[in-house]
Design a protein that fits this description.
The chain has 142 residues and is α+β, with helices and mostly antiparallel strands. The chain is built from four helices and eight strands; from the N terminus they run H-E-H-H-E-E-E-E-H-E-E-E. The protein starts with a helix and ends with a strand.
């Protein structure tokens, strides 16, 4: 069991909140977004098989997207936020360790406030539109 999984395992109230694009549903369930019923089960099994077979934390995933952007989100930055700190990833997390140049940097307190402001409407699903287009949401809790 790795260090991060030990932290998660030791705190039963630990919650991971993931904000991602609606288009990610396609990669989780194999392309057909009309059947979203088993996303929670798929993600649970992935966690057990690949991350920590002893414990699954509370996980909330918010999928958001605009049809005009092919179901992508209006914001496209990559952050890991934790309390009063965070990290910025200057490339796709999928690209870590690959041939692309990556940047990982600390987020300052001022930047964190700005990021939280940008994302809070999406995380609460209260931001209903972007550029006058309705945002579609789908939330899964594991």
């Amino acid at each position: 069991m790795g260090y991060s999984s030990e932290c998660i395992h030791s705190d039963p109230n630990f919650t991971i909140v993931i904000l991602t694009s609606w288009e990610r549903i396609k990669s989780i369930i194999g392309g057909d977004t009309s059947d979203t019923q088993d996303i929670g089960g798929t993600l649970y099994n992935y966690w057990i098989d690949n991350i920590n077979s002893q414990s699954v934390p509370n996980i909330k995933i918010i999928f958001a997207g605009l049809e005009s952007m092919k179901d992508r989100m209006p914001i496209h930055d990559r952050w890991w936020l934790s309390g009063k700190s965070g990290l910025r990833f200057g490339g796709s997390i999928n690209g870590l360790g690959g041939m692309k140049i990556q940047e990982i940097s600390n987020i300052t307190a001022n930047q964190l406030v700005n990021i939280e402001h940008q994302t809070s409407g999406f995380i609460s699903t209260k931001q209903r539109t972007s550029n006058e287009e309705r945002i579609k949401y789908f939330t899964v809790t594991v």
